[in-house]
Structure formats: C-alpha cells, structure tokens
Amino acid sequence: MSVRQSLLAILAQGPCYGYQLRHEFDRRTGSVWPLNVGQIYNTLERLERDGLVVRSGADELGHVYWEITDAGRADADRWMSSPVTRTQTTRDELAIKVAIAATLPGSDASAVIAAQRDASVAHLASLRGVRSSRDDSSPEGLAWSLVMDSMILATESELRWLDHVETRLGEHPQHALTLGLAVDRPKRGRPAGVGSAASA
Amino acid sequence: MSVRQSLLAILAQGPCYGYQLRHEFDRRTGSVWPLNVGQIYNTLERLERDGLVVRSGADELGHVYWEITDAGRADADRWMSSPVTRTQTTRDELAIKVAIAATLPGSDASAVIAAQRDASVAHLASLRGVRSSRDDSSPEGLAWSLVMDSMILATESELRWLDHVETRLGEHPQHALTLGLAVDRPKRGRPAGVGSAASA
DNA sequence: ACAGCCATGTAACTTGTTACATGATTTT
DNA sequence: AAAATCATGTAACAAGTTACATGGCTGT
Predict the structure, then answer these.
(1) Which residues of B touch A20 (CB under 8 A)?
(2) Quick one: which of A76, A107, B65, B123 has the most CB atoms within 10 Å?
(3) How far is residue B4's CA from residue A93's CA, in Å, rounded to a whole number?
(4) Distance of CA A99 to CAs A108, A115, A189, B29, B115, Å?
(5) Looking at residue A107, what is its pLDDT?
C-alpha cells in the first residue's frame, strides 16, 4: 500500500499530473526506490476507481491533472495518523528463510547465515559509503539521508540478529525438524514420517 | 516470494500434502505469520504450472501429495544459497511514510513520528512479553524464539531511527518541500508551484 | 536529423490474500 | 446431535511490477 498511499498523500497537497507525481515521490524518498512510471498511471486509475481522486481534462500543455476527493483526503489523513503495524501479515523474508533453513534437516543453516552475513556486510559498507558521500543539508538531501539511515540501522540490526542466530543454533545442535503428518491420526495408514526424507 | 519459496524448500525434504505444508510452515516459523490454507493450494498450483512440483494422485486416505521436480529442487537450492537483497524493490513502508510526512508542507511529521513511536513501544513490550513467556529449548521453540528475536531487534532499530529522525528534523526546521513541476520548463504557461497548496 | 527526455497510457502478469463451498472425520 | 477440526479446492481481487506503444519536445 505504500506507493498508493504515498501518491494519495502527495495529491493531498494539490493537483498533480502523473509524471510530476513520480518526480515528487522520487525527491521525497531520495530516489532510493525507483518507481516505474507506468505504475503511477495504474495506481491513479485504481485510486479513481475507488473514488479517492478525480481526473481533470488536460490543460493547455497537455498535462492531465489529478485531484484528490474528500474521501481521498480522509483516506490520506487516516494513513498518516495511524502507525505502521508490522505484526499480522508483514512477513520478513529473511526471518522466514533463516527459520526454514534452520529447521530443515537437509539444509546447512550456517552456510545460509554466512552467505547472508557476507551480503549484509557488503551492503552495509555500500550504504555507509554513499551516505557519507552526499550532502544532507538541503531538504532533498535531508529526506534522502533519513531514508539511508533507516536502511543502515535496519542492516545493522539484521547483522546482529544473524550473529545471534548462529550463536543460538550452535548451542542447540539438534534444531532440525523432520517432516511429520499434519495430525497424528491413530488410524490405519502409514504411521508417521511419510516424506521418505529425500534430502539433498 | 517468501511463501512460495518456503513451501518449495519444505517440499525439497519430501512429498507433502497441502494441509501438511501449512503445518510444516507454521511450526518452522513459530506460527507467527498465520498462513491461510487456501493460499497453500493456490501456491501449489502455481508451482505446478511452473514445473517445480508435480501432483500425485490421492493416497488411500485421500491425501493429495505433491513432489518437487528437478527444476524445483534447483530453484529451492538457488533460493537457499542466495542472500536476501533489500536494495532494489523492497520498500520499507515506515521509511516511505515518514519521509513523505517529513517533506509534505501540510503534514505534521512530529505527530506522525510520535504516533508511530507509541505504537512501536507498545509493540516492543508485547513482543518481549510473549518472548519471555514461552519455552525456547525445543526445536519448535527455538525456531519460534529466533523469529521473535528478529522482530524485537527490528522494532528496537525502528525506535532508534524514529528518535534519530525527530532529532534531525528538529535541527532543520525548514525541511518541507512544496510541489513543483516535474521539470521547470522555460516556456509559456504557469510559472511554477501549480498545486495551489491546498493543505489540510 | 537524431538521440534522449517528457508524458500518457495499456496489457499482461506475479505474489499474496481472503471468502466461500464442500465433505469427512473427530470430539464433546 | 452439534461443534470443531481436517482437508481440498475455487473464484475473485489487491497491489506491485514490467514491457511495450505512442507522441511531443529539446538539445546537439
């Protein structure tokens, strides 16, 4: 929902045309997440479908302006005033992957963690490099630097967790889980451990 | 891709039937991210479509088993051996939101940050509560605790960043960006600042 | 003239997600 | 008998993403 809501929040400042929205999104997020132009138009049409924006005819320069509706403004306000919740459906791909790797008998969790660690260390170094190479005093630079700092902190946290996982897995050598039936039925049929354990 | 790849990784251990896959996913990720059963079957059909798994006829109990193919195994191996990259397309909703809030003239970035901070503090307390209330010595408990620790570390990092943002915004009172044209055209037409700044 | 950017769109597709229907079996 | 769980599926949709087509304008 980030892109959709971001565009709506920008439109709450005043009418914009599609290409302009990309520009606004880019400079406000430091061009960190490149946004395909086509997505702008898709999203605008969906916002229009939902009654959150209306399209005005093209002006003398051919620009198609979009204007937020009352419902759209309410939606944007609601987004801004409600916190981001990372509980229910927000899956963390790295956490899932490491948890799966750690509990699969065949896979080498340490190798997965080591590979991830290398990549994260490199990523962190790269982030720090560009972070220090650019001016962060202008409003654009400030916004950009905040996004970069968010990434840097997240990567540092990621690394701390990876080390933590490796330590804990070392303390518990038997951490794998073999496949089992969803329910242990006390009926006739194969007893348990159906999977024949075709590990790699 | 997490769900899809996770199911494939589990199937690399041996054939499973749909409901069993949910069970396997749940206990390996600590039931932190509840997985709708319907999604299992959807995903399996898509994996089948892509030639990564094959479906076997139902056994005597009516269970429809799914088996990974060579291509599927290659895909699973590739996933496990390649690190998660959080650079290109992975958008951080909180970072986007705060960056947008900080650069929109009308919105109160401090209020957004304060609301998020409250929610994150509460979330962190809740996470720590359940984390300490459960046994983490069994393999299932270990996997669960690792996922919980990941969430705790991420939330701590989030809080650190929020405080950092508030500090930096305080140092730069003029951080807002007004709407501008995508390109400043030196032509006839409206000069600049088209948006009429209809702030809330 | 030509390359490149500005600008608007369209079509197709992916993963994730939910709601619903159906029936068997198990538990209370 | 009723409620809950097991188990398989279907249909629809949301948001994101990409590839492509089309034109106008601009700078070299």
Answers:
(1) 179, 181-182
(2) A76
(3) 11
(4) 12, 15, 31, 6, 31
(5) 84
Using the C1' atom of nucleotide C24, identify the protein residue whose alpha carbon is closest.
Answer: B62
Q: Which amino acid is at B110?
A: S
Task: Determine the length of chain B.
Answer: 200
Residue A147: list chain B partners with CB under 8 A: 95, 99
> What does DSSP say about strands A16-17 and A64-68: parallel, antiparallel, or unpaired?
antiparallel
What does pLDDT average to over chain B?
Answer: 90
Nearest to A15 among B10, B169, B195 (CB): B195
Domain boundaries, chain A: 3-81, 93-177
Residues A73-84: b if buried by 16+ CB within 10 A, e if exposed: bebbeebbeebb
Please judge whether A181 and B12 are an interchain contact, meaning their C-beta atoms are less than 8 angstroms apart. no
What integer best gives the mean pLDDT of chain A?
Answer: 90
- On the question of pLDDT at B88 being above 80, the answer is no
Classify the phi-psi angles of B158: left when phi > 0, otherwise alpha if psi is within -120 to 50, otherwise beta.
Answer: alpha
Q: Which residue in chain A is spatially nearest to B187 when comparing CA positions?
A: A61
CATH code assigned to A3-81: 1.10.10.10
CB-based contacts of A23, cutoff 8 Å, min separation 6 = B180, B181, B182, B183
Name the pairing type of β-strands B64-68 and A53-58.
unpaired
* Closest residue by Cα to residue B179 from B107, B112, B108, B105: B105
Where b means 16+ CB within 10 Å and e means fewer, A21-44 reads: bbbbbbbbbbebbebeeeebbebb
> A92, exposed or middle or buried, with CB in 10 Å at 0-12, 13-18, 19+?
buried
* Each residue's pLDDT tens digit, A103-126: 999 889 999 999 999 999 999 999
Amino acid symbol at B30: G
Q: C-alpha distances in angstroms, B40 versus A29, A113, B45?
A: 35, 27, 9
Nearest to A124 by CA among A95, A101, A157: A157
Token pair 């005043």: residue: A14
Q: Each residue of A127-154: b (16+ CB within 10 Å) or e?
A: beeebeeeebeebbebbbbbbbbbbbbb
Report d(CA A149, CA A144) in Å as an integer. Answer: 9
pLDDT tens for each residue of B19-31: 999 999 999 999 9
Q: Which residue is nearest to nucleotide D23 (CA to C1')?
A: A62
Q: How many CB atoms sit inside 10 A of residue B195's CB? A: 21
